[in-house]
Design goal:
Shape: globular
Largest sheet: none
Distance between the termini: 33 Å
Number of helices: 3
Number of strands: 0
């Protein structure tokens, strides 16, 4: 918490880390796929997964 201005900014950062861990970074133990893919969340995010995920979330919300 020392480098964050508020609890909300720290919370947002940790939430983004969780999303990147589950949807963007492939895992060796899962055979090179993400935990989301292993769980059956099948969204083709392409090469730039984080940007594609942000766009997909924006389109599903609006």
């Amino acid at each position: 918490m020392r480098n964050f201005k508020s609890f909300e900014s720290a919370s947002a950062f940790l939430e983004m880390r969780r999303v990147i861990h589950n949807f963007v970074n492939p895992h060796m133990e899962l055979g090179g796929i993400t935990p989301a893919e292993a769980a059956g969340f099948d969204v083709d995010l392409g090469r730039d997964k984080l940007l594609s995920l942000i766009k997909w979330c924006y389109l599903t919300i609006t």
